[in-house]
Amino acid sequence: MPSIADRYRQICQQLPSEVKAIAVTKHVAVEVMREAYQAGMRDFAESRIQEALPKQEQLKDLDDICWHFIGHIQSNKAKKVIEKFEWVHSCDSLKLAQRLNRLAEETRRTPKICLQVKILRDPDKYGWTRSQLLADLPELDRLSHLKIQGLMTILPMGLSDTEKLSAFQATRELRNEIEQNKTVSLALSELSMGMSGDYPLAIQAGATMIRPGRILFGDRPLQ
Known about the structure:
By secondary structure, the protein is an alpha/beta fold. The chain has one domain (4-217): Alpha-Beta Barrel (TIM Barrel). It has helices spanning 4-14, 30-38, 49-58, 78-84, 94-107, 130-140, 161-179, 199-205, 214-217; strands spanning 20-21, 23-24, 43-46, 66-69, 87-91, 112-117, 147-153, 190-195, 209-211. The protein has a nine-stranded parallel β-sheet. The longest helix has 19 residues, at 161-179. The mean pLDDT is 95.
């Protein structure tokens, strides 16, 4: 079986220089994360604050790790997310963005934010629809304590490769439309999209950050 270092090296060989791999470490043991770190990984993503905080404490000696939060943010966990993560990929509504902005001001933090969008209808996912996001742009533009960097998307299950590529391309087109909107000053350089099963398609469509997990660490228990 290939080592984590071998798997990571194989992924990196496929990545253009402008694309970064964010290792999704949900249900991954701290010892395995240390192995990943030794293999060269520096960007780690967690989706549950209650799992992330003990890991961060145990790995605090590795002070150049960049922590990314990719899960749905409950209101009572928002402050910890702001305090403990440099990147938040899963800002999924105007109400949440406004709350994160207030917490960022209170804690004197300036987190980097991706706006989570639902390009396709999916009752199991959070995020803005295209029309909702375009309508909320003026309010988002006023959130001076957030560094809004780009868009994030998670696709519905069961799509064909053609459908996946089309959805990723639509996310890129939405990002471009926002950047060309002269009424707001948002500069969205990042596209966080693509996971273990579809990241080559995401890269083809213009992703700048991919989120591999299973392909690096193997299958993990469903919880």
